[in-house]
Amino acid sequence: MRPLTRSSLALALTVATACSLGVPAHAQEPARDRVDFRANLQPIDGFGFSEAFQRAAVIHGLNGLSAPKQKEVVDLLFGRRAGAGASILRLGIGSSADKVYDHMPSIEPADPGGPTAPPKYVWDGDDGGQVWLAKQARSYGVRRFYADAWSAPGFMKTNGTDANGGTLCGLQGTDCVSGDWRQAYANYLVQYARFYRREGIRITDLGFTNEPDITVSYASMNFTPAQAVEFVKVLGPVAKKAGLKLSCCDHTGWDGQQDYTRAIEADPQAARWVTTITGHAYSSPVTSPQPTRKRTWMSEWGPGGSTWNENWDDGTEYSGFAVAENIHRTMTDGNASAYVYWLAASVGATRALIQLDGDAYHVSKRFWAFAAYSRFIRPGAMRVAVSAADPALDISAYRNADGTKVVEILNTGTTASTADLVLGSPAGRAQAYLTDAGHSVAPVAAARTHGRDLSADLAPRSLTTVVLR
User: Fold this and answer.
1) Range 356-363 contact pairs with CB under 8 angstroms and sequence separation of 24 or more
2) How far is CA 123 from CA 108, 127, 186, in A?
3) Alpha carbon distance 169, 111 (integer Å)
4) Does the predicted TM-score (pTM) go above 0.85?
5) Which run of H or E residues covers position 435?
6) What is the 3-state secondary structure (H, E, C) of 91-139?
7) Taking 70 as the threshold, does the pLDDT of residue 182 lie above it?
8) pLDDT tens-digit profile of 52-87?
9) Residues 383, 85: Cα–Cα separation, whole Å
10) For 273-330, what is each residue's pLDDT tens digit?
11) Is the pLDDT of residue 24 over 60?
12) Are strands 345-347 and 354-357 parallel, antiparallel or unpaired?
């Protein structure tokens, strides 16, 4: 047996004393937040938004926005140097027979004479400004275009109009004199994607319903879970042949979407065709994963209300801080692969990220909360495991395909603090970006690395994004 040195004797005495008191020898070590960049959770498809209902046309000058200001807004939305770097654009497939503002025009505005008659498609190359915006997005590198229908044209439905609910004729439970429009509607949706391909835009994802659980005064159409499964089996083969990923079902709430998800998963044929499960977060928030192994997207949410608000942290659900919390919960509690905000830019008392006002525009802190995630967490990234010891810190972490690593730290406390994180791999160089009342994804000297350790100074009630290279 080796004789004890003075230092080893002291260590032995310390351990013996701790054990005699019934306390582990490491009990005095403070708890540490930990990130394991090798422990994969869900893949990330991206962050995006919609400009449906002719909001894209408003950016393009419908409301008086000049060409230079159009460029500035587009750069804010898609630019990665100083903007949000959004990577998904959700398009609204129209169903209206007119082009009144706030309607989405149909590519088949008139009944061709029945479901088996040759369709009479009409394409104006504009689609409420969405074609222009999609081309702008593509020029910034966006490759994910999700086209979703709120309703079929009225002549295909039980109520004869694209608004006020109603159901697609031919589905179980319907009895329409006009006949069975299921296949015609499937062809209609795929034709929409073909028109975009003609314009040089490849739609990647296709949805046939939006909020099928409610009836509203604008474009809407009802599907029960069983009817959604039925139509998936009609649309699936047509979409697959056209090279489109099929999504379902954009329920108004994350909990309600679970009923549709379970119905799809319970039917092997339907489950075969659906690639992505999509749900909204209005009637119920994202609190748990969907019951599926498929990719899941939070495909629409925006705070309610009727006033424009630019604040970072005022206790409302439409503040920037609240939106940052919503994104965090969606990615961590819901294991979502994508986060799609409702409107990027709109007019009046809007909860959009940007307010358009004649030839001026105003940027909310909601926008910068969104940008703090979307600019740095790129398509193809992987969310990785985090063990947070400090209950005041909401932390999520991601590993991008290019090797960069991102740690998002939301300090919910009212005082400044420091996050000390142990990483599962060498930290590399760190750059921090601060978003709070006085900063908008601003680079700050707040992060330090040493070996596998990362330390970040956190302002109170703030979002700090740390990029490791």
Assistant:
1) 356/58, 356/59, 356/63, 356/65, 356/73, 358/63, 358/64, 358/65, 359/64, 359/65, 359/66, 359/69, 360/69, 361/65, 361/69, 361/72, 361/73, 362/308, 362/310, 363/76, 363/310, 363/440
2) 9, 8, 17
3) 13
4) yes
5) strand 430-436
6) EEECCECCCCCCCCECCCCCCCCCCCCCCCCCCCCCCCCHHHHHHHHHH
7) yes
8) 999 999 999 877 799 999 999 999 999 999 999 999
9) 18
10) 999 999 999 999 999 999 999 999 999 999 998 889 999 999 999 999 999 999 999 9
11) no
12) parallel
Buried (b) or exposed (e) across 287-298, using 16+ Cβ within 10 A? Answer: eebbebebbbbb
Spatial distance between the Cα atoms of 322 and 327, rounded to a whole number of angstroms: 9
When pLDDT is averaged across residues 29-44 and rounded to a whole number, the result is: 89
- 124-151 in b/e burial notation, b at 16+ Cβ within 10 A? eebbbbbbbbbebbbebebebbbbbbbb
Round to whole Å and give the CA distance between 444 and 416: 15
- Listing DSSP states for 338-376 in one string gives EEEEEESEEESS--SSEEEETTEEEE-HHHHHHHHHHTT
Q: Are residues 247 and 280 in contact, defined by beta-carbon separation less than 8 angstroms? A: no
Amino acid at 448: R
| DSSP one-letter string for 220-276 | -----HHHHHHHHHHHHHHHHHTT-EEEEEEESSHHHHHHHHHHHHHSHHHHHHEEE
Measure the CA angle with vertex 278, ends 59 and 310; round to 5°. Answer: 40
CB atoms within 10 A of CB 335: 16
Residue 214 gets which letter from DSSP? -
